[in-house]
Each structure stands twice: as C-alpha cells, then as structure tokens.
Design a protein that fits this description.
The protein is an alpha+beta fold. Helices cover about 40% and strands about 20% of the residues. It has 4 domains: about 1-115 and about 180-220, ATP-grasp fold, A domain (Dna Ligase, domain 1, 2-Layer Sandwich); about 235-320, ATP-grasp fold, B domain (D-amino Acid Aminotransferase, Chain A, domain 1, 2-Layer Sandwich), CATH 3.30.470; about 360-475, Phosphohistidine domain (Glucose Oxidase, domain 1); about 495-589, no CATH class.
Length: about 600
C-alpha cells in the first residue's frame, strides 16, 4: 500500500489495511494483490473521508481532491494509459466499500472518463467503433441515473446514440452529464459518498442492525472490458453453491458483458460451464484463484471477475451471502475440512437462519394438483405465501413482491415481503443475492410480462424448486435430520452449552407466569431474568429464546431449559451455545 497523501491510498498488496479504514472491497483488493492474483490497479479514499465529506456539508475539500488527482496519476503509471487521453485512454470504475458488506446498497459508476474524443480513440485502438459507442452510451446512462437521478429505461437501446442519451438525461434531470473526465470523477465520488445516506442503504442497515456511524470508502479502479470482443465477458463465481451449500463452484458467465449486466438482473446469463466450454484455460485459472481465496478467507467467497481478450481479472471477493440452508451446511463442512473450528461454525449460523430452515415446506402432495403460474430460477430456498404486489414497502400483511427486476431502491420492499419473484435475472442477480441475505424465498427469471398477471392474486412461492403456485398451499414440518449438516451442528452445540434443552422437567421456574422479565416494548430485561433464575433447577419462558434470556440462563447456572409450545429446541440450543462462546471470548479478552 502506498500513501499518495495521508488521505488517499494506492492499493499495491505490500500491506493490507484494516477494513475499518478502507472497507471490505478495499481489503479484498489488497489481499488479492498480496496473493499475486490478477487485479486491475486501484486507489481508495478511506472511510474517514466519507465522514469528513458529510461533516463538511457534502463536499470534497481541495486537499482531498489534490490527493485524488495524485491517485489517478498512480493508475496512469501502472497502466501506461492516461485519464482523458484519446491516444491511450484510461477509464475507471468508482465503487463504494463499507466495512460491513452491504451488497448492491450503494452506488457504482463504470466506464468513467468517456468523452467524444476518447470514444473516437477507443474505436481506433480496438478497430471496433460499435464497442466504443456502446461503452460511451453505457457510461452516460449509468452516470445520468446514478449521479444525476435521471429516470431512464433500465438499459440503453442497441443503437442509441450518445447525443440522444445525453438529451434524455438533461430533459429528465435538468442537468447535463459532464464532458470533462475530472468533473465526471469528482461528481461520481460525491455520489458514492452520498449513497451511504440513501434510503435503501438506511433500510438495509436498520434490518441488519448495522451502525449508522460508519461510512463508505470510495474505490477508484482501472477499467477492464468484458464487452470488448468474442474472448471477453464478465461473471460471478461462488466457491460453493449459495443455495444448498454443496461444495462445488457455482456461478454465471455473460459473454461480451460488463459486471453490472450480471448483478443488476437485466441480462440472462449462462452457467459457469459455458465459460469452461468457451475459454477452458480462463475457467481453470478462475477455479484455482477461487480455491486459494476460500482457503485464505476461511469462508465461502463471492467473486466478481472480468475477462478481457482472453485475460482473467478479479475485481473483488467477499464472504458470500447464502441461503439459510447453505449457511448450515457450509459452516459444518468448513469445520470438518479444518478451515474453521467448531465454535466458529456455531457462530456462522444465526438463530434466525436456523428458524428459517426449520420453517414448514410444501406438503408432499400439495404441488401435484396445484396450478403453476410461473417457473424460473430458484434463487433462495423456502416456501412463503401472500398477495402478489409490485411494491411492498410500508404495507402490512403477507405480501409477495413481484417485479420485472429489483434494484437497491427495492430493498425496503424486499424486507417487508414474505417472498420475491422477478421476471429477469439469474442466480447471482441483485434479487437473488439480497433475497438470500434476507432469507426470503425467491424465484427469478420467470419471463417477461409474467409478474403483471400475478398482481393482486394470492400465490405460494417455492424458492427451492423455482415455482410459483396459485393460492396458499398446505405445508409440513421440517425436521433437523432433513437439513444437511444440522444434526452435526446441534451435536456441537450440545458439547458447548452447559445447559440442555428438554420437553419437560420438575421444579421449573416459568418466566411467563409472572411480571417483570420484559420491558415496556416486550424485550427481555437481563437483570430481571437473572434475579428470577437465581438458584433455579430448570426454566421455561418466551424470553429464553432471546440472547438476553440465554445469557441469563448461563450466568445463573440453570442446567435445563424446558421449551414451551412453539419454541424449536434446536433454536434454543444454538442460542445457548452461541452465548456460551461469547462468554468465553469476553473472559479471554
């Protein structure tokens, strides 16, 4: 890592800064460079600069801007290209990078640095005027939508001119896309810092309990072009199946595409096997890099990559968002492979994920006579039913969000919905990734125009098989032995937890039989719980399903928890084990 100044860092792999300084994305680039993997050169504006930006009234100060220009100079030196130079053009991407992964929540601008002169230069250098025109139009559209807030078609037309795109943006937003590359870069950095405070990002942080006090870094990285020729493309690779947790690579490949084409869900991609058929050497190098990154991180990785004229580039890697069932299986598999220990495995699965995998599934014969109203790609396993709506944000009841595709603006509605269905996109699209993170059953890629016919109808979404049924179908219980890896995980939980979970016991202290163990909002009061449980031989109550309740059981030395009706024993046991691990770590700190 090189300090351009104290305020901008060039990532070179010599050192790996802390994620609290440069965010997950910056750390992932630095670690990949340190491992000798092929990564386009990049520099980062640290998270502290986001806080300064907002404190200064959403503006970049002159000292920071001078440092940014020096960072651009470092990219020019590394690539042999120049920003804004038609003869040797350097284009860049501008991306967010928070310390806590928030996939798709903040802004990205690609192909920045495009001008009429640079377009002409790219056409001469590549011999492909259509590539140059398309790249310019893509930039104008993305900048207009992301930075200026223009409401445009989701993607540019095949033969749309740059002038037509610029005119549409100016008419809708009242502002013009800057024609000077440095003005483009400054505005893009403003937009990415500003996206930390966007409505969608705030909704995501509220749902996951992420602090509002952080901020995002800004990553400026040299562009490589997946849309350049027949040996170019882009894709996403998961080192293990994020739906089931099966230990095999899983992903999508889009020839002649750019990264946003895949994650936005606006293009239907090919399976990763298509890359193996088209460019077997690239496919082999990608799998080797993926295996190295999983070993390095000790977790399932979600890797974005681009191939330019047959050469592989890795853009970022992060811990993969996965379905609740995949979270269970991968935690156990990684522990049994020695990549993590058993305590880490127990902490990799949340109680909420465990409750989701044990939620009811379609009854054995329910689907046989049901009306199928849509079929697509299974994106997150599980079953949920509700009324189909195209906007669930702020609405109550059992709702299924159905849309042509989803974008970060839809996150609040995805949180409110029971399930998600989209017309377009594949298993690595925005809808798929966010649905898995939220544990919402989802089906994507059901076909153009299909969701319009579902609106207002009650439907059942089976995210395991990729099918949407008319009406509300009957379900049946899921047992721990039905979930791969779960019995093993619970065995480890029993070894860790000093308290057992049973169906009945003598001398039970019933916390539901008195007052004072929950506060005015229904949350468990740890002090009141500890007082009630002191000296108890067994305990029962709704409050014991909470982290505070489990901690009170352990602190009071209660040997047995008796589950009440509706409390899954597995969830109580996992909660106890996780709180015991937390106690050990606190005492060792």
């Amino acid at each position: 890592m090189t300090n351009v100044t104290a305020r901008v860092l060039v990532l070179d792999g010599a050192t790996v800064p802390d994620r609290e300084e440069i965010g997950n994305k910056g750390v992932s680039i630095a670690r990949m460079l340190a491992l000798g993997l092929p990564v386009p050169p990049a520099f980062v504006l640290p998270i502290e600069e986001c806080r300064r930006f907002h404190a200064a009234g959403d503006r970049l100060d002159d000292e920071l801007w001078d440092a940014v220009l020096e960072g651009v100079g470092a990219l020019e030196e590394a690539t042999g290209r120049r920003f804004g130079d038609p003869e040797r053009p350097l284009l860049v991407s501008v991306r967010s990078g928070a310390a806590v992964s928030m996939p798709g929540m903040m802004d990205t601008i690609l192909n920045l640095g495009m001008t009429d002169e640079v377009e002409a230069g790219l056409a001469r250098l590549t011999g492909d005027p259509e590539f140059a025109r398309s790249t310019h139009v893509r930039f104008v559209h993305e900048f207009g939508h992301t930075v200026l807030g223009a409401d445009l078609l989701e993607e540019p037309g095949d033969h749309e001119s740059v002038d037509a795109a610029r005119a549409a943006i100016a008419e809708d937003s009242g502002e013009e896309v800057p024609r000077e590359p440095h003005a483009q870069l400054r505005a893009a950095i403003h937009a990415v810092f500003g996206s930390w405070s966007s409505r969608r990002a705030k909704a995501y942080r509220r749902h996951w309990g992420i602090s509002e006090d952080g901020g995002t870094a800004v990553i400026v990285q040299a562009m490589v072009f997946g849309n350049l020729d027949g040996e170019s493309g882009t894709g996403v690779l998961f080192t293990r199946d994020p739906l089931t947790g099966a230990p095999r690579p899983y992903g999508e490949w889009l020839p002649r595409g750019q990264g946003e084409d895949v994650v936005s869900g606006t293009h239907d991609c090919l399976p990763l096997s298509a890359l193996a058929d088209q460019l077997p050497g690239v496919h082999d190098r990608l799998l080797d890099a993926a295996a190295l990154l999983e070993r390095e991180h000790g977790d399932v990785q979600d890797i974005e990559f681009t191939v330019e004229q047959g050469r592989l580039y890795l853009l970022q890697t992060r811990a993969a968002k996965r379905s609740p069932a995949a979270a269970v299986r991968t935690a156990v598999d990684l522990a049994e492979e020695g990549a993590i220990d058993r305590e880490q495995a127990l902490c990799r699965v949340s109680v909420e994920q465990l409750l989701t995998v044990l939620a009811p599934r379609l009854a054995g014969d329910a689907a046989a006579t049901a009306e199928v109203v849509a079929r697509g790609v299974p994106a997150c396993p599980g079953v949920a039913a509700g009324v189909a709506v195209d906007d669930a944000d702020g609405r109550d009841g059992d709702l299924v969000l159905v849309r042509p595709t989803t974008s970060p603006e839809d996150v609040a509605g995805m949180i409110a919905a029971r399930a998600v269905v989209t017309e377009r996109g594949g298993s690595t699209s925005h809808a798929a990734v966010v649905s898995r993170a939220l544990g919402r059953p989802s089906v994507v890629g059901v076909g153009e125009g299909v969701t319009e016919g579902l609106l207002g109808r009650e439907v059942t979404v089976d995210g395991s098989d990729g099918v949407v049924y008319a009406g509300r179908l009957p379900t049946e219980e899921v047992r721990p032995q039905d979930v791969p890896g779960l019995e093993r995980l619970l065995e480890w939980a029993r070894e860790v937890s000093p308290a057992g979970v049973v169906d009945d016991a003598p001398d039970v202290v019933d916390l539901d039989a008195g007052d004072g163990v929950v506060d005015a909002e229904g949350a468990a009061d740890p002090a009141a719980l500890a007082e009630r449980l002191r000296g108890a031989r067994a305990a029962r109550g709704a409050a014991l399903a909470s982290a505070a309740g489990a901690r009170a059981v352990l602190d009071a030395g209660v040997p047995v928890v008796v589950r009440r009706a509706g409390q899954p024993a597995a969830a109580l046991l996992l909660r106890l084990a996780q709180q015991q691990i937390a106690r050990r770590r606190e005492r060792g700190a």
